[in-house]
């Protein structure tokens, strides 16, 4: 199968969602609510989830969806529901040219029902879309990096991925220039990048991307998260030292790290667990890991095992994530195993 329709719809869906997230980003009121696990969610997360699920459901109504958010707060709190609905409505009005392809939403009720289609349990069979409507919500709130991330898992294997990164520069050599890129991939067909345009129906083909293949760690740069609670930065620094990496790490939120490594603006992504009981979520890794693999890299857990997307909503068979160029991956895993020998 070519999966060209899936890729096209996924690209349009994450692109339209970014119209909404951008608007919320530039507004004062973000409607931040703290979830049970103490993490933040905003009305942009809810709005983006409704828009993306609307697009998936219109085109692939038989498919299952694992989305990060649910509509419980919106059903209870009119002061979150109403502004979310306003943003969703305005975004649809602003993107009439793609409504034929990725659909409309006609009421706040329909918006909440769409959000709640993301409750699937995941698993080893069938077609399952994994959606992170805003990955890096903390980054989004502080004006850092964030991403809208959508992956299609077919019989347990990530097969299609689209990643929209509104705050990454189009040209990494000009970090203060134009911002916003969209990356996508189909397994076996490579990964591409294009600018995230405001005119989302101008469907230009993406440019193929390839990861760097640095000859040695002395030339390599590594990416890690901003949040010290999400990965163990102390151990990451120690591994970098063991490997002979001399460049300072680049810290950024969200799957923008996978995007940066895939496009060659960085070489390694280290995500060492802060606790061996934390289960990474499939929506935090589906799209990004496929894009890195299709750009020529290897993505694994800290033991060097492939990420297993076939066991539910989380990657419960894995701990942490390591993304690296093919020629360096085995050496990184050696250093990681040495660093973590007390817990592995
Ligand atoms: N203890 C933890 N360890 C690893 N990841 C965690 C974590 N707590 C939260 N996260 C995840 O880290 C994601 C952000 O990744 P990063 O730190 O690379 O920016 C969050 O996604 P959301 O922002 O979508 O909730 C959340 O799912
Ligand atoms: Mg979250
Ligand atoms: Mg996330
Ligand atoms: Mg999220």
Relevant terms:
344 residues, alpha+beta, Fructose-1,6-Bisphosphatase, Chain A, domain 1, D-Maltodextrin-Binding Protein, domain 2, 2 domains, 7-stranded mixed sheet, 5-stranded mixed sheet, 11 helices, 14 strands, 35% helix, binds adenosine-3'-5'-diphosphate, binds magnesium ion, Inositol_monoP_metal-BS, magnesium
Ions, cofactors and other ligands present here are: adenosine-3'-5'-diphosphate, magnesium ion
The CATH topology of the largest domain turns out to be Fructose-1,6-Bisphosphatase, Chain A, domain 1
Question: Low-confidence segments, ≥5 residues, pLDDT <50?
Answer: none
Summing up helix and strand content along with how strands pair, one would put the structural category as alpha+beta
CATH class of the largest domain: Alpha Beta
Overall average residue pLDDT = 96
């Amino acid at each position: 199968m070519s999966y060209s329709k899936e890729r096209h719809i996924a690209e349009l869906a994450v692109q339209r969602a970014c119209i909404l997230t951008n608007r919320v980003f530039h507004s004062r009121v973000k409607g931040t609510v703290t979830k049970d696990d103490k993490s933040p969610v905003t009305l942009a997360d809810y709005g983006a989830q409704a828009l993306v699920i609307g697009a998936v459901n219109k085109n692939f109504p038989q498919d299952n969806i694992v989305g990060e958010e649910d509509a419980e707060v919106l059903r209870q709190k009119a002061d979150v529901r109403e502004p979310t609905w306003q943003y969703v409505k305005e975004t649809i009005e602003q993107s009439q040219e793609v409504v034929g392809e990725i659909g409309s939403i006609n009421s706040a009720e329909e918006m909440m029902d769409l959000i709640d289609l993301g409750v699937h349990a995941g698993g080893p069979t069938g077609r399952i879309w994994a959606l992170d409507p805003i990955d890096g919500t903390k980054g989004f709130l502080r004006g850092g990096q964030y991403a809208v991330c959508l992956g299609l898992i077919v019989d347990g294997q990530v097969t299609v991925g689209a990643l929209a990164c509104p705050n990454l520069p189009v040209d990494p050599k000009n970090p203060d220039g134009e911002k916003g890129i969209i990356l996508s991939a189909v397994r076996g067909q490579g990964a591409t990048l294009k600018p995230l345009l405001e005119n989302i129906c101008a469907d230009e083909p993406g440019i193929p991307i390839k990861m760097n293949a640095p000859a040695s760690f002395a030339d390599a740069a590594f990416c890690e998260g901003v949040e010290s609670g999400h990965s163990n930065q102390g151990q990451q620094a120690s591994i970098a030292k063991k490997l002979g990496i001399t460049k300072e790490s680049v810290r950024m939120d969200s799957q923008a790290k996978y995007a940066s490594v895939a496009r060659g603006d960085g070489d390694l992504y280290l995500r060492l667990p802060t606790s061996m009981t934390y289960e990474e979520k499939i929506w935090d890794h589906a799209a990004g890991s496929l894009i890195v693999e299709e750009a020529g890299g290897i993505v694994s857990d800290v033991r060097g095992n492939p990420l297993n997307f076939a066991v539910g909503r989380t990657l419960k068979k894995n701990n942490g994530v390591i993304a690296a160029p093919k020629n360096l991956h085995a050496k990184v895993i050696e250093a990681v195993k040495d660093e973590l020998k007390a817990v592995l």
